[in-house]
Amino acid sequence: MTPSYPTDSECLFCKIIAGEMKSNIRYESDQVIAFDDINPKSKTHVLICPRGHYPTLMDTPPEVITTLLEEVKTVARELGSDERGFRLIINNGKEGGQIVFHLHAHFLAGQQQHGF
Ligand code: AMP
Known about the structure:
The chain is an alpha+beta fold. The chain is built from 2 helices and 5 strands. The chain has a 5-stranded antiparallel β-sheet, covered by helices on one side. A hairpin with a 3-residue loop joins strand 1 (25-28) and strand 2. The chain is globular and about 40 Å long. The chain starts with 11 loop residues before the first helix and ends in a 7-residue tail after the last strand. It binds adenosine monophosphate (AMP). The site of adenosine monophosphate (AMP) has 11 residues, from loops.
Protein backbone atom coordinates (compact mmCIF):
# COMPACT_ATOMS: atom_id res chain seq x y z
CA MET A 1 0.00 0.00 0.00
CA THR A 2 1.25 3.51 -0.79
CA PRO A 3 2.03 5.43 2.40
CA SER A 4 -0.09 8.51 3.17
CA TYR A 5 3.06 10.57 3.75
CA PRO A 6 5.79 11.79 1.36
CA THR A 7 8.66 9.40 0.69
CA ASP A 8 11.94 9.48 -1.24
CA SER A 9 13.15 6.17 -2.65
CA GLU A 10 16.78 7.40 -2.48
CA CYS A 11 16.59 8.37 1.20
CA LEU A 12 18.39 6.17 3.74
CA PHE A 13 15.92 6.90 6.54
CA CYS A 14 12.93 6.30 4.24
CA LYS A 15 14.45 2.85 3.55
CA ILE A 16 14.72 2.19 7.31
CA ILE A 17 11.13 3.39 7.82
CA ALA A 18 9.92 1.13 4.98
CA GLY A 19 11.78 -1.84 6.52
CA GLU A 20 14.04 -2.13 3.46
CA MET A 21 17.14 -1.44 5.51
CA LYS A 22 18.10 -2.90 8.87
CA SER A 23 18.17 -0.81 12.04
CA ASN A 24 17.70 -1.30 15.74
CA ILE A 25 14.24 0.17 16.23
CA ARG A 26 13.56 1.40 19.78
CA TYR A 27 10.09 2.89 19.31
CA GLU A 28 7.47 3.15 16.56
CA SER A 29 4.12 4.83 16.14
CA ASP A 30 1.94 5.83 13.17
CA GLN A 31 3.81 9.12 13.02
CA VAL A 32 7.43 8.50 13.99
CA ILE A 33 10.14 5.91 14.25
CA ALA A 34 13.11 5.92 16.64
CA PHE A 35 16.20 3.78 16.03
CA ASP A 36 19.76 3.58 17.32
CA ASP A 37 22.34 5.79 15.62
CA ILE A 38 25.03 3.58 14.04
CA ASN A 39 27.73 5.91 15.38
CA PRO A 40 26.53 6.63 18.92
CA LYS A 41 27.76 9.77 20.70
CA SER A 42 26.19 8.76 24.01
CA LYS A 43 25.26 5.57 25.88
CA THR A 44 21.81 6.08 24.40
CA HIS A 45 21.78 7.76 20.98
CA VAL A 46 18.52 7.39 19.16
CA LEU A 47 17.36 9.14 16.00
CA ILE A 48 13.71 10.12 16.08
CA CYS A 49 12.23 10.73 12.62
CA PRO A 50 8.81 11.55 11.26
CA ARG A 51 7.75 8.79 8.86
CA GLY A 52 7.19 11.42 6.20
CA HIS A 53 10.16 12.56 4.15
CA TYR A 54 10.88 16.23 4.90
CA PRO A 55 14.54 16.99 4.12
CA THR A 56 15.11 19.66 6.77
CA LEU A 57 13.32 21.36 9.64
CA MET A 58 12.70 24.29 7.30
CA ASP A 59 10.67 22.06 4.93
CA THR A 60 8.58 20.46 7.66
CA PRO A 61 4.94 21.38 8.28
CA PRO A 62 4.13 22.70 11.78
CA GLU A 63 1.87 19.77 12.67
CA VAL A 64 4.68 17.30 11.89
CA ILE A 65 7.08 19.27 14.10
CA THR A 66 4.55 19.34 16.92
CA THR A 67 3.99 15.59 16.66
CA LEU A 68 7.73 14.92 16.52
CA LEU A 69 8.30 16.85 19.75
CA GLU A 70 5.37 15.18 21.49
CA GLU A 71 6.74 11.80 20.41
CA VAL A 72 10.17 12.75 21.80
CA LYS A 73 8.47 12.92 25.21
CA THR A 74 7.02 9.45 24.65
CA VAL A 75 10.41 8.05 23.60
CA ALA A 76 11.96 9.63 26.72
CA ARG A 77 9.41 7.82 28.91
CA GLU A 78 9.83 4.53 27.01
CA LEU A 79 13.63 4.65 27.40
CA GLY A 80 13.48 5.74 31.05
CA SER A 81 15.11 9.12 30.41
CA ASP A 82 12.12 11.35 31.12
CA GLU A 83 13.20 12.14 34.69
CA ARG A 84 16.95 11.57 34.35
CA GLY A 85 17.11 13.95 31.39
CA PHE A 86 18.30 13.92 27.81
CA ARG A 87 19.68 16.18 25.09
CA LEU A 88 17.86 16.79 21.82
CA ILE A 89 19.71 18.06 18.73
CA ILE A 90 18.41 18.82 15.26
CA ASN A 91 21.12 19.51 12.72
CA ASN A 92 19.67 21.67 9.98
CA GLY A 93 21.24 22.10 6.55
CA LYS A 94 24.86 21.93 5.45
CA GLU A 95 26.34 24.44 7.91
CA GLY A 96 24.24 22.87 10.64
CA GLY A 97 26.13 19.62 10.12
CA GLN A 98 23.21 17.73 8.64
CA ILE A 99 24.30 14.66 6.67
CA VAL A 100 21.06 12.74 6.20
CA PHE A 101 18.40 14.92 4.62
CA HIS A 102 15.34 13.41 6.25
CA LEU A 103 14.34 15.39 9.34
CA HIS A 104 15.48 13.69 12.53
CA ALA A 105 16.17 14.60 16.13
CA HIS A 106 19.20 13.15 17.90
CA PHE A 107 18.12 11.91 21.34
CA LEU A 108 21.17 11.62 23.59
CA ALA A 109 20.78 10.10 27.03
CA GLY A 110 21.93 7.44 29.48
CA GLN A 111 24.85 9.49 30.81
CA GLN A 112 25.73 13.07 31.75
CA GLN A 113 25.89 15.25 28.61
CA HIS A 114 28.78 17.74 28.37
CA GLY A 115 30.06 20.34 25.97
CA PHE A 116 27.48 23.14 25.82
P1 AMP B 1 22.90 14.32 10.84
O1 AMP B 1 24.30 14.86 10.83
O2 AMP B 1 22.04 15.06 11.84
O3 AMP B 1 22.29 14.26 9.47
O4 AMP B 1 23.03 12.87 11.41
C1 AMP B 1 22.90 11.71 10.67
C2 AMP B 1 23.12 10.57 11.62
O5 AMP B 1 22.71 9.39 10.99
C3 AMP B 1 24.59 10.37 12.04
O6 AMP B 1 24.71 10.50 13.45
C4 AMP B 1 24.90 8.94 11.57
O7 AMP B 1 25.71 8.24 12.47
C5 AMP B 1 23.51 8.34 11.46
N1 AMP B 1 23.36 7.22 10.52
C6 AMP B 1 23.82 7.17 9.24
N2 AMP B 1 23.46 6.00 8.68
C7 AMP B 1 22.74 5.32 9.60
C8 AMP B 1 22.10 4.06 9.63
N3 AMP B 1 22.09 3.24 8.56
N4 AMP B 1 21.47 3.66 10.76
C9 AMP B 1 21.48 4.47 11.84
N5 AMP B 1 22.06 5.68 11.88
C10 AMP B 1 22.69 6.11 10.78
